[in-house]
Design goal:
The chain is of the alpha+beta class. The chain contains six helices and five strands; from the N terminus they run αβαββαβαβαα. Strands 2-4-5 form a three-stranded mixed β-sheet. The protein has a two-stranded antiparallel ribbon with strand order 1-3. Helix 3 packs antiparallel against helix 6. The chain is globular.
Length: 182
């Protein structure tokens, strides 16, 4: 029972943080960032995802040990991961599949920094999500960050998930890179 109460408490704190995020967004206030380790944020999001993903979707996580801390809002990073994985799951269209989450240190070179406004050359931490969904054609990929753009049926989605992810990454002086094909 104590373990369940601890999980309920953690979920309550996460809900409080999400409400604060929505209020800050609606008032155009910046959220407070702090220096955090991303590994625990990923672990917490994965626990939530494992409880919500269908049985046929396998989730694997590879977080390199000893990653540098980053300046981030943990609630927003949690939201990014949940949105990306939910999108990946929907891309599987009810079929069994695999979602792979990776967290590792990478070096951004000058060329990549020029391609993506907000990125600066140097070491950073990369969070990646890869799935075995159906993939997207080039025309769809070009529009995925547009607010309210969705390929889902009318009652199945708002088209805000990837737009929110994109905005959060920009707010964290990061970028999101998409590689997909049917």
């Amino acid at each position: 029972a104590l373990e369940s109460i601890a999980e309920i408490n953690k979920a309550g704190r996460r809900a409080r943080d999400l409400v604060q995020q929505i209020l800050a967004f609606s008032r155009k206030q910046t959220l407070s960032r702090s220096v955090i380790a991303l590994g625990p944020v990923v672990e917490e999001a994965v626990k939530l995802l494992q409880a919500t993903l269908p049985a046929g979707v396998r989730l694997t996580v590879d977080c390199v040990a000893g990653l540098p801390d980053v300046s981030a809002d943990s609630t927003e990073i949690h939201q990014v991961l949940v949105n990306l994985c939910t999108n990946a799951w929907h891309a599987m269209e009810g079929q069994p599949g695999h979602i792979d989450i990776r967290l590792k240190e990478v070096t951004v070179d000058a060329a990549l920094a020029r391609e993506h406004a907000g990125l600066r050359p140097g070491k950073c931490v990369r969070l990646s999500v890869r799935d075995t969904g159906k993939g997207m054609d080039a025309a769809t990929t070009e529009r995925i960050f547009e607010p309210f753009f969705t390929t889902k049926a009318i009652d199945e989605g708002t088209g805000l998930g990837l737009s929110v992810v994109h905005g959060i990454m920009q707010g964290h002086e990061g970028a999101i890179v998409v590689d997909s094909a049917p």
